[in-house]
Amino acid sequence: QVQLVESGGGLVQAGGSLRLSCAASGRTFSTYTISWFRQAPGKERGNVAAISWRNSTYYADSVKGRFTISRDNAKNTVYLQMNSLKPEDTAVYYCAARVRGTMEYPYWGQGTQVTVSS
Questions:
Q1: N or C end: fewer C-beta atoms under 10 angstroms in the chain?
Q2: Considering only CA atoms, which of 4, 20, 3, 5 is closest in space to residue 114?
Q3: What is the tens place of the pLDDT at every residue in 92-101?
Q4: Three-state SS across 18-30?
Q5: Is residue 59 within a helix (H) or strand (E), and if so which, with residue range?
Q6: β-strands 67-72, 10-13 pairing
Q7: Which tens digits make up the pLDDT trace of 19-53?
């Protein structure tokens, strides 16, 4: 069982930066793939970035070159550094975890709001 808690959201002007954190409980954190999803009002939730247990990373095209995902297994935490933010990045951001070798995400955080003003 893994519990996830996001933090770091807020209001920022376009062009600014935020760093989101996803703190996890559980002794096997290092074996999970952690992803950040986001959902804007009226839109479907989408995968923004992911980092595997081997530190392989994935980024959606819309955030490549602007967002960086990283993990600190000693702190059971995954970070999403978001630079050059745009108004279209405004959404609720969720972190989620899946077990190595599986495709489903059974563990989700409560979400953190990111609002980018123009």
A1: N
A2: 20
A3: 999 999 998 8
A4: EEEEEEECCCCHH
A5: strand 57-59
A6: unpaired
A7: 999 999 977 888 999 999 999 999 999 999 999 99
